[in-house]
Design a protein that fits this description.
5-stranded mixed β-sheet
Length: 237
């Protein structure tokens, strides 16, 4: 009797595992297909907007498409991350940060956000460019969402560490311990999937990057501490 009972439990367990795997594979296939279908029209839209004459409408379209692009890149990274290998390399984080900031210039102007930016030149770290972009884009995007009218961005070296700081004068962080968890959003009305800072967290943990979010007077501050890239004897360069 017990043998039959446990046999039935085992069969139910195996069947549930099979169904869960099928559901997971189906969801992954759907998202991969959806991302593939979105990539081309998004690229075409961005290209055509760049060809329009300068106007307020063009600026708004450009800002909206840029935000869509960031969301697309987050979801794409989220889907591909378990199956992709991101090879680290020596990168000029100063240059990458300046390039990414240029992508946000239009939306900063449209929202009348004052930006106080100080970036030391030629600060190198050992990280993949795609992952560096995800760290920068998600922090900038969040800061723009929640700020009242001011951002402060700093990149500097202290001893053998490189620090990336971003401050916004918004309402602060409800729970600094949960802000990096998946699907956590400060404000449900601001949109988004709540995966951006979780992507940042996973990148930081994988690459031994220290990170912290804290409330300070009149806003929130995110701090990232990178190891400075140092050339090793075994390096190919």
């Amino acid at each position: 009797m017990f043998f039959i009972f446990f046999s039935l439990l085992y069969l139910l367990y195996k069947n549930n595992i099979k169904n869960l795997k099928y559901q997971k594979d189906t969801i992954n296939t759907f998202f991969n297909d959806a991302m593939h279908e979105l990539k081309t029209p998004l690229g075409v839209a961005i290209l055509n907007v760049s060809m329009l004459d300068e106007s307020v409408q063009k600026s708004r379209l450009k800002a909206a498409l840029n935000q869509m692009k960031i969301t697309y890149e987050d979801v794409e990274y989220f889907i591909k991350n378990p199956y992709s290998s991101y090879e680290n390399e020596k990168i000029n984080f100063s240059l990458i940060l300046k390039q990414r900031l240029a992508q946000f210039h239009t939306i900063l102007e449209l929202k009348n956000i004052k930006s106080d930016i100080k970036i030391d030149d030629d600060l190198y770290i050992f990280l993949n460019k795609i992952q560096a972009n995800r760290i920068i884009d998600n922090n900038l995007s969040n800061a723009i969402k929640y700020t009242k009218n001011q951002l402060k961005i700093r990149l500097f070296k202290r001893f053998d560490k490189i620090y990336f700081l971003i401050y916004d004068n918004g309402l602060g962080i409800k729970d600094t311990k949960k802000i990096f968890n998946r699907y956590v959003r400060q404000n449900q009305n601001q949109g988004g999937f709540g995966i951006g800072l979780n992507i940042v967290k996973n990148i930081c943990l994988k690459n031994e990057i220290n990170f912290k979010a804290k409330n300070i007077k009149n806003g929130a501050l995110f701090i990232y501490e990178f190891k400075e890239y140092k050339k090793l004897i075994l390096d190919k360069e």
